[in-house]
Write a structure and sequence with these properties.
Elements: H1 2-30, E1 49-57, H2 62-72, E2 78-81, H3 83-88, H4 90-98, E3 102-105, H5 118-136, E4 142-143, H6 152-160, E5 164-165, E6 170-171, H7 180-196, E7 201-206, H8 218-231, E8 236-237
């Protein structure tokens, strides 16, 4: 009986240990502020700073309207572009650059880099940086992993290619609502929470969608205008390269 109980407890402990290890691995691979798998750039300690960051573009319908909204409020943003979309719209990419926005690498096809091979990861990043640099005539220095998914090899390969990995500390879930007011309200709460904690805000939004070139991002565009108005006098909008030393 004692032996059976001992074996049972041992199996339970092993199962618990395995579960904890799996949970820790998932946390490290996907939680945006985790630094366990390697250092990433998130945000500064200047609580009056906001970085609006947009993923999954460029979007031929909504990115131009977003650029108009940002220009109206003199806000500069950071755009992490999907390479295959950028290749189809070089003039739009150049317009983003000309307006003073920062452009980063978001891979060629938007795969989950926590499970891709090292060869595929390097190919996704290399091809995207090459295309963006051909369009822009300037090096690309920042990279955001799709879904926030990464592993140690992901971050190592990015740095070998001269890319600083960028995550976020605020997410408005703008891809699953059609309400601009809801996106803005969620974002406002996150910005004020970060301010209370003495942190800048790195806000994840989307001007595109990885499943289709022309995803509907009207709500995100309108929300960007609402946030620009609400925080234009109390905060300073920056691009993530303002925090470049944090990712080194």
């Amino acid at each position: 009986m004692g032996l059976e109980i001992g074996l049972g407890l041992g199996a339970l402990a092993a199962a618990v240990g395995t579960g904890l290890a799996v949970g820790a691995g998932a946390y490290s691979a996907r939680w945006p502020t985790s630094q366990i798998y390697g250092r990433t750039l998130i945000a500064s300690g200047n609580s009056d700073e906001i970085a609006l960051t947009f993923d999954d573009g460029p979007n031929p319908r909504w990115t131009p309207q977003l650029l108009d909204v940002l220009a109206e409020h003199s806000v500069k943003a950071t755009f992490f572009l999907i390479g295959q979309y950028a290749a189809q719209q070089p003039e739009l990419v150049r317009r983003m650059q000309a307006a003073g926005h920062l452009i980063g690498n978001h891979t060629w096809t938007h795969p989950d880099l926590a499970i891709t091979s090292k060869l595929q990861t390097r190919g996704e990043l290399t091809r995207t940086s090459g295309e963006l640099e051909r369009i822009l005539g300037a090096p690309v220095k920042y990279f955001r992993p799709p879904f926030g998914s990464r592993r140690p090899a992901t971050l190592r390969i990015a740095r070998e290619l001269g890319l600083t990995p960028v995550m976020w500390n605020s997410m408005a879930y703008d891809w699953n609502t059609n309400s601009a007011e809801l996106i803005a309200t969620r974002s406002e709460k996150l910005i004020l929470r970060n301010q209370r904690r003495g942190k800048a805000t790195n806000l994840l939004l989307h001007d595109g969608g990885h499943l289709t070139l022309e995803a509907n991002r009207e709500a995100s565009v309108v929300a960007a205008g609402l946030l620009s108005r609400r925080f234009g006098t109390s905060h300073r909008f920056v691009t993530v390269d303002a925090w470049r030393t944090l990712g080194s």
